[in-house]
């Protein structure tokens, strides 16, 4: 029966097998029950696993351990400890496997206090000398605290150590980038396995010492696929794609991880053509490979291709999308501002009963807000059973983005009343809401609370929000004084923020002063030089415009053209300045000319600053 259960491929099949087990009176076999529960959890149905557990007439330690394991794997750590307490209340003592699962729960919680509590129970029940339990405890201590002393003390006190013990302590030092001690222990190892060597290569790669990583790799008596993949990943992380490709080409037994790593390598440097070539040549793909390709298009702002890739994935019907896939696709919809695509992916989530995790919920809130459907953002926000600080921040940002700044501040107030811990990022969202809503007094109060009440040290982004808040309100001298009193040197972004406000309010003297600050900080940046040139044009300072344009031509600085998009009939069309790529360009420009003429006939006269901008950017 266990062999039959092992072949089950869906929850529906599992339920059918479970029914037959009950009919044939096999439901009291603890190993069969444990396997049913384990698979139920694997098929994302913790509730069904709990039903099996609750309906079991006799439960031994194996069945209880499986329930604890299911809770831990699904992130229900408190329920795992509760299940253990109930087991002990029934007079069933824990065994070594019980404690290994509880230690994993402690790792997930990152709780040193709970880890020490479990350690005490391990000693009490006499499992302190079991090397299997000691190794689990060693790994837990290494992950639950930045201080490695507890893990090292446990390692030193172990009367017997196996290769897992040595690898655990080496890995702990590697995680803390303490390569000297890690290598010292590595040299003392009485016996090394391939995991030991791989761990050293991982640690060296993490600190960017690829020369040493390659040296260790060359010394390995035997290598496995992980050894090759680790070295390839190290080269990718260090930005040496050619070296990664060289190792990849030497590899005889490439697996899906090897191929996917090379896809990520090429997308990282923006070579999407090579990335797609590697993807198409892959003999075997999995959902991670598809995710790497979709994410690569996203990271390089090719959002339409990301959506096309997702549609191709669905057409092939070989790998169902996972949370990472859906999150990437939602991000693409958000960047395109495509509500039609956004509604489609949301319908896909509901139709396929995809669990609304915090990450997915946050992505949907952000996407609907950026697509202009703030009501749907609020609907998703209300539906989420659990929220994190990112959820609240995203919703506040979305409200401000859609002009509902007062509602954004009200939501922040509600969040504070509910006792949610705040961070520095949410204050950027709240201060931005004050800026866009023109709430100068409220913004200043919130900034003061951030510093004095919550003890958050302002970052450049917070200073930028305050400069924008004061500048938009016309308090230019106050904004300038704010910048000058900063404990750090202001960057060009901050000065550019003030410059925009100076131009809007016609503060000619400040325009010249601030423009010079920007030029001094970013003499070779096209976006800042264009901003300075445009501000001069608006003020009629043509000498300044000519000088900036001449300098840009001399240094070979070119303006990055602006891009806008519109969705028609399910297709997103992108346009650049003076764009001639579109297949219907003649119709488009004829329509624009007609609208321009109609505006002229109705008496529209461009503001002189707009004409200045037109001429200033004519040949950039």
TrEMBL record:
<feature type="repeat" description="PPR">
    <location>
        <begin position="388"/>
        <end position="422"/>
    </location>
</feature>
<feature type="repeat" description="PPR">
    <location>
        <begin position="60"/>
        <end position="94"/>
    </location>
</feature>
<dbReference type="Pfam" id="PF20431">
    <property type="entry name" value="E_motif"/>
</dbReference>
<comment type="similarity">
    <text>Belongs to the PPR family. PCMP-H subfamily.</text>
</comment>
<keyword id="KW-0677">Repeat</keyword>
<feature type="repeat" description="PPR">
    <location>
        <begin position="162"/>
        <end position="196"/>
    </location>
</feature>
<dbReference type="InterPro" id="IPR011990">
    <property type="entry name" value="TPR-like_helical_dom_sf"/>
</dbReference>
<dbReference type="InterPro" id="IPR046960">
    <property type="entry name" value="PPR_At4g14850-like_plant"/>
</dbReference>
<feature type="repeat" description="PPR">
    <location>
        <begin position="255"/>
        <end position="289"/>
    </location>
</feature>
<dbReference type="InterPro" id="IPR002885">
    <property type="entry name" value="PPR_rpt"/>
</dbReference>
<dbReference type="Pfam" id="PF13041">
    <property type="entry name" value="PPR_2"/>
</dbReference>
<dbReference type="Pfam" id="PF01535">
    <property type="entry name" value="PPR"/>
</dbReference>
<protein>
    <submittedName>
        <fullName>(wild Malaysian banana) hypothetical protein</fullName>
    </submittedName>
</protein>
<feature type="repeat" description="PPR">
    <location>
        <begin position="224"/>
        <end position="254"/>
    </location>
</feature>
<dbReference type="GO" id="GO:0003723">
    <property type="term" value="F:RNA binding"/>
</dbReference>
<dbReference type="InterPro" id="IPR046848">
    <property type="entry name" value="E_motif"/>
</dbReference>
<dbReference type="GO" id="GO:0009451">
    <property type="term" value="P:RNA modification"/>
</dbReference>
